[in-house]
Amino acid sequence: MRLERPREWGACWLALEMWNFLGLDNFWSKHLTPSRKGTNWLNVLKTLVTYRWISAGSEWRLHRQWFKSSAMADLLGEDDSIALDDTLYRCLDLLHAPKKDLFSFLSERWKTLFNISYDVLLYDLTSTYFEADSKDNERLKKFGYSRDKRSDCVQVVIALIVTKEGFPVAYEVMPGNTQDRTTLPEFLKKIETVYGKLNRLWIMDRGIPTEESLKKMREHNADYLVGTPRGKLSKLEKQLLKEPWKKVQENVKVKLIREEKELYILTFSNGRRDKERSMRQRRLRNLYERLKELKELKEMKKITRDELLMKLGTARKEAGRIWNIIDIRIPMKNEKISGDTFTFKINREKLREQQFKEGTYLLRTNLQDGEPEELWQRYILLTEIEQAFKELKSDLHLRPVYHQLDNRIEAHIFVSFLAYCLQITLKQQAKQHAPGITPRAILEKFKTMQMIDVHLPTTDGRELILPRYTYPEKDIALLLYKLKLKLPNQPPPKIQYQPNKCGADLLPKTQ
């Protein structure tokens, strides 16, 4: 008896179970028909999505390493040909057309499976970067505001809409230089086309809606609850000071004022205040120490005025808003560098203003009713979309992107989106039937289930091959029971003929 080819089975099987639970075969069978040469594009897509969810990497790694170490061929009834690099790339090229139809299909499935409603939608943007230069003829890869702190890299922008439970409704890939405020009108039209106009609340972070877009939303009777830049807080300060605080959580309190046809909700969080205070103190200390270092260099005449300005520019970039707290006098062009021409001191009034705002953020809505604590509870649902971005970037390794062509970049993000759909589906199932465990933790447990080939010789010279997955441990068996999942029967045996042997093979082996 021999044991051969240990390979990952449990996680692959779980991914295909989530795929089947969503009924994705019903959708993709209409859009991915087999090729004339017999390539089953549906199985290729399943392989790409499973790989992205379980062990994300490049398509080249899938082809060279992962597929052979997994049990995907056994589960799909395929051979290694579906993981050829050219086959994988050709499948990516087939994915651009049915995106809108898929959004509608998934929305109906989640409504049926989990009773998901679409009366509250969360909208936000993120970016993912490329460590490569952009060419003039490229539509997507552009320099722009980087949420990954990589302004030196070209990027693409991804706009995402999710429900309050975190289920994705739609997404769009846009050029990396797209400004946040320009993306909203088009998305409003798309969602209204699919789901209708009325009885929907849009929740967005500050920076996305403009005054013009909010005005249009009011004209179209679209409700919104959005974050507001802190500059608005100064204009409403006198009115807000008159209102009492209302406690909504142990460390959170809110107050509300009405202005024209909108409500403004000022929120104060002890945790946020402590975080912002710590950041402000650290940056202010670093900036002050840096200015002292520059002053010492100047007095020793080790730098010129131009060098001083360049170093101040670097310090300003690192300090951020803290820069405005310090009043700095810089030598004029015709002035000599001295202790009188380069001075700095903390502006106490500006420091007090910043201390007053620490821990606060301002919300606005055109809803005419609702308690402030209820509105705040709705706004913090934005953590669901932040979690979606986090999972896309960390769990599903949205970056790095190994593709250069625009259509391949979009296909890469599309596959990541499908993998996230599997993850959020498992997350919801766990929430209902096995609360307290994350989908990634479940996936890691199932990764321990392996498949192995048991080779047994027969009396007639042939060999019986038994592909067998390992019996689940107690914790996995409990998860299977809780999630109402049933393992399949063991695969049927295979018969393999031994290769012909010559007479020398039958002679006793010498030491």
Automatic annotation (TrEMBL):
NCBIfam families: transpos_IS1634. GO terms for molecular function: DNA binding; transposase activity. It comes from the Bacteria. Residues 137-422 form the Transposase IS4-like domain. Keywords: Coiled coil. The lineage of its organism: Bacteria, Pseudomonadati, Candidatus Omnitrophota, Candidatus Omnitrophus. Residues 277-304 form a coiled coil. It holds the Pfam family DDE_Tnp_1. This is Transposase IS4 family protein.
